[in-house]
Input
Amino acid sequence: MFRLLDRNLDENLFYVFTGEGGLHINKGNNLSGDVLVFDKQTLTPDLIDTHYLNIPPMINIEVDVEIDNSTFSDFDYIQRKTDNLLKFATQKVIWILTKTQKIIVAEPNKDWLMIDWQKDIEITNGITFNVPQYLKKEGVSIE
Output
């Protein structure tokens, strides 16, 4: 995912962060993201330091749910986190769910979409991805 975005997004306009980048939503509410895309006009260099970012990403991409979820379901977690991100002004949240081979796409003021991952999914500005096509190209077998 990072390579796709890195190759296709103008590096003069966007940052792409990976590796559980931290977001400070509000007091006592911090989240991390697998892949975060920021508009450089919003996230200026003076706002980047050693703390969690308090600027919403333009796009947040998550791969699977990997938390201790003994008190709530994976979908409850997805819903809570996505709602928090959208309220924080993130423009698009994408969940790639490998176990069910589904993609969830959520945008503000729109119905959330649950899509078979065999379909091309638009990230932004015509940049699309297709999980099984990518895995097949890399020689990874999926069932």
